[in-house]
Amino acid sequence: MSVKQSLIKMRRSPIIKQFLKVTFKIATFLPVKKKMVMFESFHGKQYSDNPRAIYEYMVQHNPDYELIWSADRRHLNLFSDKQVRYVRRFSLQWIISMARSQYWVSNSRLPLWIPKPKHTTYIQTWHGTPLKRLAADMDAVHMPGTDTERYKRNFLYETSKWDVLISPNAYSTEIFRRAFAFQNKMLETGYPRNDFLFQKDPKSAKIKILQQHHLPTDKKVILYAPTWRDNQFYSVGNYKFDLQLDLDEMYQNFGHDYIIILRMHYLVAENIDLRAYQGFVYDFSKHEDIRELYIIADLLITDYSSVFFDYANLRRPILFFVYDIDEYRDKLRGFYFDFEKKAPGPLVKETAEIVKEIKKIEKDGYQPTARVQAFYDKFCYLEDGKLRSVL
Fold first, then answer.
1. Residue 6: is its pLDDT beyond 60?
2. Phi and psi, residue 234, nearest 5°
3. What's the rounded Cα separation, in Å, for the pair 255 and 81?
4. Which whole-number Å values give the CA distances from 73 to 86, 87, 130, 245, 354, in the listed order?
5. What is the pTM of this model?
């Protein structure tokens, strides 16, 4: 076992967890900071998503509040580069701040051992409109380090701490209530993160982002943003991803007019070798926030990721690369609706089909179908670009 692995094992040991829990409980007796808000996005790995949108709103409209980010020790540079106030996750300062804070704002689960103080309001924003079955609705769990019964028990213990849950639409509200066994305050408002998509000058915003990241401004952009597979993993929280997209075939057909941006899920651990596709394929998996990638993408390729619910607000073409749909639908997760009939774009299983669909759009232009409009009316109707405070 390496020194790094030994340190990781030590940090995750029951003794350390018990020490943190006791320290946290003691810290709750300190005076409450009534205008302190703790923010966390994807376990402290990102400055992104709904928490970021709420934070940015509060910076502008609530300058009297003390706003602090929870930052994973491996991603501290991200927060220091943004010049936002942060504390390192699981440090003594973090424990004290979490224990004294009036509000927590998070988009994913917090560690189970953290007790929510009585004075704290826990606002859970979540991070997607559900296509895949969630929590109590899952028939079986294939993730490492747990089993179906324990996973559901732990998940519902976490949701019992939530005081407020944000929902993007009525469809999600119904599922969240059941899957999370959530009985507290539901804010059915649309997702704060999507307000960024409603740019006053979309063309200028796109060019600005492309230039900031040294990407060509004279080519179209394909964003490929797949999700993770529960049963393909290296270890707990580190998932494998087998890139089925044939980059050679994509380059032969679109290398002169397009670039491809890869955006892997934050749980995927792969580092894909793209040296052979320099200037054509770019890996933006570690980019701080996918919202900028939506703005610059002329077309989205995804699979079962909830990114397509957000991207649909832009009314641009979406292709669904679902080479393993039978296994994913029937064995891994299951869907809440008939995905094959209601997805807002064609479902394809091979790169050749992707090429065909893109060439069709090139030839005929993109015209949203009645199915796309029905999807928009059901899932995107609350998004209007006007963020309101949730506190």
1. no
2. -95, -45
3. 33
4. 11, 9, 30, 33, 39
5. 0.90
